[in-house]
Amino acid sequence: MNLPESYIPILLQAGVAIAFVAVSLLGAHFLGPKQKKGNSVKNQSWECGVPVEGNARTPFSIKYFLTAVLFVLFDIEIVFFYPYAVNFREFGMEGFLAVLTFVAIFFMAFFYVWKRGALDWDK
Fold first, then answer.
1. How far apart are CA 93 and CA 96, in angstroms?
2. Does position 24 have pLDDT exceeding 90, yes or no?
3. DSSP 122
4. Alpha carbons 76 and 74: distance in angstroms, whole number
5. C-alpha span between 28 and 25 (Å, rounded)
6. Start-to-end CA span in the chain (Å)
7. Which residues contact 109 (CB under 8 A, 6 or more apart)?
8. How far apart are CA 85 and CA 78, in angstroms?
9. What gap in Å lies between CA 41 and CA 60, rounded to an integer?
């Protein structure tokens, strides 16, 4: 098989990655802790020393997930301001108008979420 020289580093990196995964999985299997089968007290779930109450799969309010997703969404949007803050002189008026458009869309999304009641925890 005659491969171009440019493929050799890619194949080498892929081989190292696959070998690392294999060694990690095998090492975890053979060197990791072993659990004994059975229903002993040692194998029961505990959270900070407090006995478990109910089932772990009990559904809870979607507000938790909605708040987390909104936080990540708005947090990522704020990260996009960093390149503008670093290079605002080079962007000039065109960059300023682009950031104003971005901020306008950002605030429209924020007010939409606010009006829909997604930020009201008590509902």
1. 5
2. yes
3. T
4. 5
5. 5
6. 66
7. 73
8. 11
9. 28
Ranges of H-type helices in 3-53: 7-31
In whole angstroms, give the CA distance from residue 110 to residue 123: 18
For the purposes of burial, counting CB atoms within 10 Å of the CB of 71, is it exposed (0-12), middle (13-18) or buried (19 or more)?
exposed
Please, what's the b/e burial string for 86-120 (b: 16 or more CB within 10 A of its CB; e: otherwise)? Answer: eeeeeeeeeeeeebeeeeeebeeeeeeeeeeeeee
DSSP 48: T
Q: pLDDT tens, 65-104?
A: 888 888 888 888 888 888 888 888 898 899 899 989 988 9
